[in-house]
Amino acid sequence: MKKLTGLFLITGLFIIFGFTSIVMADSVKKKYTLHLATQMPISHTITKAANLMATRADELSGGKIKIIVHGGGSMFKDREIPEATMSGGCDLGISTANTWGKHARGMSCFEVPFLIPPSVSTAEFVQETVELFGKTLFAKGGKLLSYAYYGDIEAMVTAKKQVKKPGDVKGLKLRIYDRSLVAGLKANGAAPVVMSSKEVYIGLQRGVLDGAMSGISSVVHRKWMEVCDYVLAMPNLGCRPAHPFPIVANRFVWEKMEPAAQKIIAQVAEEAREFTAEDVKKAAKANIALLKSKITLYELVVGSPGWKEWQVALGVPGKKKFLEDNPKVGPQIIAIIDRLK
């Protein structure tokens, strides 16, 4: 009986989902071709999420909404995507939060080390920020739809020596992805420099860089493990899942779309977020296993003395820098975090 009940339930869900798809497809009258830009490699979770959006939009609209995905920076580079999206260079853009932070102050909060504690639900936090940041982006030509997660575990990869504690970075020139990391690393003797992830491999290969910080997926997908011998896995350096990438539509393209088409685009953007939330967990496990077989890996445990040492070294100056850079919206974001703890 339980098996039959389960079968009926699953069948019912398929019927409901199929019926919803048909209704939505019938209600879309016009045809749309939308170009989506992301700089992430073709095999990365972010690009897979973009492709999922394309597939689902096509399904839900009955073929009336076509999303053409331009991955790997083939259309625009990371720092170019926000401006391109809001000015109409592309219809949809997915790139790092700190690049969007130049247009919506405080959006770099996702990159600030240890600002969002493990006790805070990332899904709840990002949902809270959609309205907050969405208003600012809308006024500048962008419609914030949702977020796609970049990874699940952050990392520091190094070529010369293994880094385990903050003091181990002394004398190393490190690529970082956000300015909030500068003070903490400098205080421990490192020379941090903000740089695009696409430029890191050559920098490491030529010895211009001694190491780099990013999600652990970059170490694998961008093949940094080929030019480095050590990696430090740092879970919950930011939120977890880590580094939410804003999914943004051009406001004017959005406004010209009929309500049924808007509903589909909003839905597939949220489906992309849900997909990445699970995919990054699987990818992180696979990446950890692969790196262990290739180079020397040291993994911090959340809440351990070693993890807390990094929390103090990077988190305190990082939060201070974030609030200095965002005197108005910064306290609002901290208030949201405190409420969700």
Short description:
The chain has 341 residues and is α/β, with parallel strands linked by helices. The chain has twelve helices and eleven strands. The chain folds into two domains: 29-150 and 241-283, 3-Layer(aba) Sandwich (D-Maltodextrin-Binding Protein, domain 2), CATH 3.40.190; 154-239 and 296-328, D-Maltodextrin-Binding Protein, domain 2, CATH 3.40.190.170.
Layout: helices, strands, pairs:
Layout: H1 2-27, E1 32-38, H2 45-60, E2 65-70, H3 81-87, E3 92-94, H4 97-100, H5 122-139, E4 142-151, E5 154-158, E6 173-176, H6 182-187, E7 191-194, H7 200-205, E8 211-215, H8 216-221, E9 230-234, E10 242-250, H9 251-256, H10 259-294, E11 296-299, H11 305-325, H12 329-340
Parallel strand pairs: 1-2, 1-3, 6-7, 6-8, 9-11
Antiparallel strand pairs: 3-10, 4-10, 5-8, 5-9
State the low-pLDDT regions, or none: 1-19
- The radius of gyration computed from the alpha-carbon positions, rounded to a whole number of angstroms, is 21 Å
Q: Estimate percent helicity.
A: 40-55%
Category from helices, strands and their pairing: alpha/beta
Q: In total, how many beta strands?
A: 11
DSSP helix count?
Answer: 12
Strand content: 15-25%
Mean pLDDT, all residues: 92
The general outline is: globular
Major β-sheet strand ordering: 7-6-8-5-9-11
Largest sheet: 6 strands, mixed
Q: Output the CATH topology of the largest domain.
A: D-Maltodextrin-Binding Protein, domain 2
Second CATH tier, the architecture of the largest domain: 3-Layer(aba) Sandwich
CATH homologous superfamily name of the largest domain?
Bacterial extracellular solute-binding protein, family 7
Number of domains: 2
What sequence of helices (H) and strands (E) makes up the elements? HEHEHEHHEEEHEHEHEEHHEHH
Distance between the termini: 42 Å
